[in-house]
Structures are given as C-alpha cells and as structure tokens.
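> call design_seq(struct)
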C-alpha cells in the first residue's frame, strides 16, 4: 500500500464488510439451532421412527454441522478484516502525527518522499513512513491470506505456501518440545510467509492457541476456533447421554455425567458470550475488542482474556485472580480486568492500554486448607513467567509498559513467579495480599520502587498475620489446659511470640519491613446488624474494584490506573 493510498483510504466500507461477515456468522448459528431443534424435537425418535426417519435426521445433522463450520469461517474472515482495519487505522494515525510534527519548511509528496532543509531529518522521516507502510503492507498480506484460504481463491503459489504451512506443524511441535522460549517462538513465526502462517493456523489451531510468543490476534482466532468446536462436541455428547438416559432413566451415573456436561457447556458458553462483543469504556470512551488468549475446560478450567490488543498497546495490565477463581466464574475476573482498562483510559486518554485477565493456573478452591498452601502458586510460576516474556516478544514496537497485579492468593502467585522464574515486567502490584512468598520487595527481581501494595483497613486478609494466628492458636491451647485464664494467657503468649509483620505467605507487603511502596484503598462495603461484626471484613476483601466503568472514583482503582499508565507521581 502506497503512502498516498493509505492517507486517503476510507476504511468505513471495509469495516462494514467485516460487520456483514460477523452478522452472517450469527445467522448461520441461528439456522443451526433451528435445525437442531427440528431434528431433536419435531422429528425426534419419539415422533418418528424407522429407516427413513433415521436418514432424514442424519441429513439434517450434516446440514447443521456444515452451518457451524461455515459460521466459523465467517467469524474468522470478520476477525481478519477487523485486525487489518485496526492496523490500517493506526497507520493513518501515525502518518497524521508525523505530518503534524514536520519541521518548518519540510514537505511530503504523494509517494512519501520527504523534502527538508536537513538531509538527516528527511531520511529519518522517510524511515518512519517506511516503517508504517511496512506494517500496513504486512497486515494487508495477512488479510489476503486469511480470506483467500477460506474462500478458496488462492493461486498455485499461494496454495503451495498454504500446504507448506500445514507441513510445518511437525517443525513447530519440535520447537515446543525442546522448550523454546517466547522470543524464539516469535522469531520462528515471523519467519513464515502470511500463507504459511494461515495454513498452519487453519490446519492446527491447537498448536498455536496457548503458545507464548504467538501474536495475540492469531491466538485469539485459534482459541475461538477450538472453543466453537468444543461446544459443538459437548452438544453432541449431551445428546448421546440424553438418549441413553431416556432408555435408562434411573441410571444415576448417567445423570451425573449429564449434569457435568451441561455445566461445562454453560461455562464455555459464558466465556464465548463474554468475548463475543467489544468492551465499551464508559460514555465517550473507546470500544476494545476481547482477545481469547487461552482457555481450558479440564478440571476447574482456565482462561486468559485480553481487553484490547496487548501487542499494540502502550500499556499492558495483567490481573491474576486468586482463591476460588475458575472457568465458571471467570466472567467476574474479566470484568475487573475491563475496569482496569477503563480506569487506565481515563487516567491517560492519550495512551492505549490492554488489560489481561490471566487465569492460566489452578487457583485454590477454598481458603482453608488450599490457600494456605504455596504449591498452587509454585505450580503457576513458570507459566506466568512465560506469559510475561511472551508479551515482550509480541510487542510490536518494543516499548509497552507491563504491570502485573495479583489479588489475594493471586498476589502470592505473582510474587512466587517473580521469585522462582522471574517476571520481565515494569511493575508489580499486590492487592489484599496474604504474602507474596518473599521477605522483602528486593527479593522479587525488580527495583523495589516499582513494587506496590495495598490493603483496605477492613480487609479480612489482615487477619492472616502470624500474630493473629498465634493468638488464636495459643488461646485455644491455653483454654483447653487452663480454662478462660489459660486461654487469655495462651493467646497473649501466642501473639507476642509471633512476628507482627508476617502473613501466611511471607512478610506483609504493606508493612515497612517489606520495603516496597504502598497506596491507599477504601473499605467500600458495609453490612447491617449482627453481620457487621464479620461480614464487612469478608466483603471488603473483594471491594477494590467497586464502581462502574466511567471515570473512576474508587481510590484503589484510581491508584492502580496511575501505576499502570506510568504516572506514579499521582499515586496516593
């Protein structure tokens, strides 16, 4: 694409085409649902039996399956168009900024050639223009490859490259098997042609879906393809179990199996619906696309979802949730990540921020005994470290600011990942932490001045201090041996014998002894009556993201937004 073509391009029609493809996907999905209803209810085995009936139902199923496949193709074309439009728009914006900053007397002609008093200035400006056009050209080629591969309009050379991409699956698997890092993965991927990339993506999405170092838009396409396929398989499994249960209604094992399948389907549908629409930031703010960077329905389930593209954002915020987080309730954590994207926008509207919810690990199910065990965090360390390195590897301009925030046990996970595997980030934030696995901020591998923590005054996590636990344990033991007086003495001994700065998982990160920086947060939830004695403290452990996604008013959110956008002088 030439300089003048990019500057003058009206991208509205191309955007409209993308919207039409996405709408067509929706229509095909509706048709498949209608066919499924027809096959299972209106001409089901209870209404129609025999060889002809079986053949008709089989034919209707084939048509429905084809509709699902075509809907997936339509969505992939829509996503390819949307990704390309985003790059084209960014290119137009960069050219506009360049023109606005031209030195006095400098001009740019229709071919992008710069005339300036200084030859060095002219060369530098032309290099900037060339970089923009290279990025736009690459996006244009990628769009062409995606559409041509799906539509079947490739020429002989392009078909050969698509086939070569499929053949590269073994090479890529070998790369992964020898534990290549995200930077090496990204270099390998960038070395492929757009058609080779498209061939591998179409043939083996499962290889690319959750690999750090693969660009966010590619992972998103791969994961959505896998998610659609899994939902389709789950539906077929549910039908099969329902049919078996109809013939054996008293089979409790089949009933449990059916309930489990339905629950998983609901979890996956909620995830699909969550990422299907852009996240709108308040009144007048931008709409940010969701990127599905990873998911799993195995065991408790996992999910990694970005609001905004982390590969192109100026700031990247990563939120790691804690105890109780799983696929079934991932929507709440995604909402919190969305609020952090909104808060960052209001804190610095001139910069772009992507916010990631990273549930790429098995979080503890319950506070006691699971969250008392550091093993969950230790098991997550390598994956979180790799994800952070992957953000660096896929960062298109190499200049993004990355901040990782852990809430509750998620802060323990972040701290132990930094301690054991290293986190290539610009800042760490610990919210409502039970300890982060280290004695001091200097043990985390980054400048303690870039380590932040907060805990509101009514957060129940403050009860996880060693002195509180010691007082309870000592009081219990003393009470058993010496009655009320013994309990009082035992509690006092337990309290004073304990370290007042220690939590369950290390030094309290909001204490002076930890050596990091702290910021204010408010206890925003109040209970009434007798519940006030304990419920305030429990509820306020989750109050740090209270409020809507307009201009933030919650103190913790304000402060986190300043940290994420690098405006730490505004932190209070």
């Amino acid at each position: 694409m030439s300089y003048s073509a990019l500057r003058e391009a009206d991208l509205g029609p191309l955007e409209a085409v993308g919207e039409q493809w996405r709408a067509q996907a929706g229509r095909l999905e509706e048709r498949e649902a209608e066919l499924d209803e027809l096959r299972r209810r209106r001409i089901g085995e209870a209404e129609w039996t025999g060889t002809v009936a079986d053949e008709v139902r089989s034919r209707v199923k084939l048509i429905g399956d084809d509709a699902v496949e075509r809907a997936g193709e339509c969505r992939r074309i829509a996503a390819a168009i949307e990704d390309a439009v985003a790059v084209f728009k960014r290119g137009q914006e960069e050219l506009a900024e360049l023109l606005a900053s031209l030195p006095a007397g400098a001009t740019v002609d229709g071919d992008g050639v710069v005339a300036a008093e200084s030859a060095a200035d002219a060369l530098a400006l032309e290099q900037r223009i060339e970089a923009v056009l290279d990025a736009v050209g690459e996006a244009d080629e990628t769009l062409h490859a995606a559409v041509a591969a799906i539509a079947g309009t490739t020429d002989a050379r392009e078909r050969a490259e698509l086939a070569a991409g499929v053949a590269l699956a073994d090479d890529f698997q070998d790369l992964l098997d020898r534990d290549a890092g995200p930077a090496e993965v990204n270099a390998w991927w960038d070395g492929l042609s757009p058609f080779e990339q498209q061939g591998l993506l179409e043939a083996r999405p499962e290889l690319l879906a959750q690999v750090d170092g693969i660009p966010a838009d590619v992972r998103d396409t791969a994961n959505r393809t896998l998610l659609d396929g899994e939902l389709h398989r789950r539906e077929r499994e549910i039908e099969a179990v329902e049919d078996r249960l109809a013939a054996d209604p008293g089979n409790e094992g089949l009933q449990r199996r059916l309930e489990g399948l339905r629950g998983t389907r609901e979890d996956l549908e909620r995830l699909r619906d969550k990422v299907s629409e852009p996240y709108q930031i308040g009144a007048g703010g931008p709409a940010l696309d969701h990127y599905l960077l990873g998911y799993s329905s195995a065991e408790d389930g996992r999910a990694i979802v970005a609001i905004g593209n982390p590969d192109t954002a100026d700031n990247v915020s990563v939120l790691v949730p804690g105890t109780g987080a799983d696929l079934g309730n991932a929507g709440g954590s995604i909402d919190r990540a969305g609020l952090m994207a909104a808060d960052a926008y209001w804190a610095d509207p001139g910069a772009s921020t992507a916010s990631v919810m990273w549930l790429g690990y098995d979080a503890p199910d319950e506070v006691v005994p699971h969250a008392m065990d550091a093993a969950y965090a230790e098991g997550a360390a390598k994956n979180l470290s790799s994800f952070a390195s992957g953000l660096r590897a896929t960062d298109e301009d190499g200049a993004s600011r990355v901040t990782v925030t852990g809430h509750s046990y998620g802060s323990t996970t972040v701290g132990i990942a930094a301690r054991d595997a290293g986190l290539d980030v610009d800042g760490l934030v610990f919210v409502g932490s039970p300890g982060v696995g280290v004695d001091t901020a200097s043990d985390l591998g980054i400048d303690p001045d870039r380590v932040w923590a907060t805990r509101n005054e009514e957060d129940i996590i403050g009860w996880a201090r060693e002195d509180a636990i010691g007082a309870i344990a000592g009081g219990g033991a003393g009470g058993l041996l010496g009655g009320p007086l013994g309990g009082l003495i035992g509690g006092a001994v337990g309290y004073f014998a304990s370290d007042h700065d220690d939590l369950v998982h290390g030094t309290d990160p909001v204490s002076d002894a930890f050596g990091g920086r702290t910021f204010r947060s408010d206890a925003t939830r109040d209970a009434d009556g007798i519940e006030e004695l304990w419920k305030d403290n429990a509820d306020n452990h989750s109050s740090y993201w209270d409020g809507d996604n307009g201009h933030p008013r919650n103190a913790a959110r304000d402060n986190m937004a300043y940290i994420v956008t690098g405006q730490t002088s505004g932190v209070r």
